[in-house]
Amino acid sequence: MDEDAYNAAQLDRQEWEVAAAVRQYQRACEAGDDPAKEVETEAICDRVCRLLYHHLDLRLGMSSDDWVWLNGSYECRIEQMSTLEIRASGRVECSLPEGQRRWSEPFDARISHSPTAAVLQAYTIWLGNRATFLNVPEVRRMIESGEVLTPPAPVHQDGWAFVFHLGDRD
Question: pLDDT per residue over 13-29, tens digit each?
Answer without folding.
Answer: 999 999 999 999 999 99
